[in-house]
Write a structure and sequence with these properties.
GMP Synthetase, Chain A, domain 3, 2 domains, nine-stranded mixed β-sheet, four-stranded antiparallel β-sheet, 13 helices, 21 strands, 35% helix, globular
């Protein structure tokens, strides 16, 4: 309680803009549908106009497409805004930066992304991204000032960085584990610190959290202080969620985001779906012709409504998803989207052109979450498919029957065009803490070759 109280006091005294945005976010989540739509639409029009008037890239691109912000007279005109493709950002991220913005407001990060090709992404430091996490914490009855455990690729290194971090967060205790390289000894120390410092919530890449959960279950450790696990960066399989909840002794909050737009949607305790942060992020779902979809799965386009440094407007992330056309019983008015299960690159192909969607491949393993602990479907450049799997302990008597059924299912879906091999392994390698359920060399080649 003391840690949380002091956290909010420090923010009220020294981070007034963050607190203003936080109060705005708390108000917005309870607006009626009409008022929330008005907030979202107003921000969209303002951002498009700003980008056109201040960033040469957008003026040139929109002019070439025959689009002007003046065409945005109503919501139905939104489809007229040209889509921003990933390759445009990858090859010309610097061109997206507003030349009129002071460098002190600009930050950037890089990622290899699903195609392995590096991409630079610029962010607006004036928007305090953490407030979206703070809002979600109110749904789960925890505080950002509670003792925390974090596992991702960026952790304080060296005594100076660690000392600065302790002073910054005092009296809150924060425990770190680098997801880029995790040994059993490092995981053991991480778990020990979680228990000793009575950590209340833990956050990190889904793959890294699963590794920690594996260790806790293997060593039969008891973690009693945790009230929330915040999983990020990758889809959660049913078996991974169940494992985390068993190991950590609390519920898992799934979050959808990307390197380009960090916090798009988050789960509340009352739904399996995720609330879109609709007052700060806009999401479109479109079909293969880029027409809007409202009750079907399609490509996800995202607009970051708070980035005026390098706006991403109707940006095709490379993910596929769908809206959940229902109201959440929690009372929050932010719209819902279903869990994103994969990327466009997570497709399996046959030589004749049959495409097996990665989302579907993930779901066929859901039926066997009591038998298969981890899995990964890998397609090589010669179209052959290898399914790596790790059985659950105690499922030895069922695994052979399950593999036979999965083999029959995949061969039926692929019309027996490609060889499929099932290979039992002790563990599935993660990518710096990020889980890759589907890896397709054929899909990646198609993307990189245009």
């Amino acid at each position: 309680m003391f840690e949380s109280t002091l956290f909010w006091l420090k923010n009220r005294l020294f981070r007034r803009e963050a607190m203003r945005l936080y109060r705005e976010a708390l108000t917005n989540q309870h607006l009626n549908e009409c008022d929330l739509e008005s907030v979202n639409w107003g921000k969209r029009k303002k951002l498009v106009t700003y980008a056109y008037e201040n960033i040469p890239f957008y003026r040139e691109y929109y002019d070439a497409c025959g689009f002007s912000p003046l065409q945005l007279q109503s919501e139905k005109d939104w489809v007229k805004v040209p889509i921003l493709e990933k390759e445009q950002v990858r090859q010309g991220a610097d061109k997206l930066v507003n030349p009129k913005v002071s460098p002190k407001y600009v930050s950037f990060t890089t990622t290899g992304g699903s195609t392995g090709t590096p991409m630079k992404v610029y962010r607006d430091k004036r928007f305090k991204l953490e407030i979206l996490g703070w809002r979600a914490f109110t749904w789960w009855k925890v505080s950002p000032g509670d003792n925390t455990a974090i596992t991702h690729r960026r952790v304080p290194k060296g005594w100076k960085a660690q000392l600065k971090n302790r002073l910054l967060w005092w009296p809150t205790k924060r425990v770190y584990l680098s997801a880029s390289s995790m040994s059993e000894d490092q995981i053991a120390q991480f778990v020990h610190q979680i228990i000793r410092k009575k950590v209340v919530w833990i956050t990190g890449y889904a793959g890294a959290l699963e590794c920690v959960a594996d260790y806790i279950l293997m060593k039969k450790q008891k973690v009693s202080s945790l009230r929330l696990v915040w999983s990020t960066s990758a889809p959660l399989s049913k078996s991974a969620r169940e494992k985390m909840e068993q190991a950590f002794g609390c519920k898992v909050m799934n979050q959808y985001g990307s390197c380009e737009v960090s916090n798009i949607a988050q789960q509340c305790p009352y739904s399996e779906h995720m609330h879109i942060n609709y007052d700060f992020v806009h999401v479109d779902i479109v079909d293969e012709h880029n027409w809007p979809l409202f009750d079907q799965e399609g490509d996800i386009l995202v607009t970051d409504l708070s980035n005026y440094v390098a706006p991403l407007i109707r940006y095709r992330l490379g993910d596929r998803g769908s809206f959940a056309n229902e109201k959440c019983t929690c009372g929050i008015s932010l719209p819902l989207m279903k869990n994103v299960k994969g990327r466009i690159s997570d497709m399996i192909y046959t030589p004749s052109g049959i495409v097996v969607d990665g989302n579907y491949l993930t779901t066929i393993f859901d039926n066997y979450s009591d038998t298969i602990d981890q899995f990964q479907v890998y397609q090589d450049a010669d179209y052959s498919v290898t399914v790596f799997y790790r059985p659950k302990m105690g499922a030895e008597d069922r695994i052979d029957r399950v593999i036979v059924m999965l083999n029959e299912t995949l061969n039926r879906d692929m019309k027996s065009e490609v060889p499929i091999v099932f290979k039992q392994v002790e563990s599935i390698e993660h990518d710096a803490g990020k889980t890759r359920y589907i890896i397709s060399k054929i899909a990646l080649a198609k993307i990189n070759n245009g």
